[in-house]
Amino acid sequence: MASYHPAKIILHQSSRILEIEFNNGDLFKLPCEYLRVFSPSAEVRAHTGEVSIWITGKEQVNIKKIQPIGQYAIKLFFDDGHNSGLFDWDMLHTLGKDYEKKWQHYLTKCESMGVDRNSG
Question: Which domains does the chain carry?
Answer without folding.
Answer: 6-113 (3.30.2020.30)
